[in-house]
Amino acid sequence: VETNSILLIENAWVAEKEANLKISP
């Protein structure tokens, strides 16, 4: 369960980073 939570957090972090890069010119 802890590992799953860590993976979900990492996935959310990566998704947010990618979204920020796409928004940036």
UniProtKB/TrEMBL annotation:
Q: What is this protein called?
A: Uncharacterized protein
What organism is listed for this UniProt entry? Nymphaea colorata (pocket water lily)
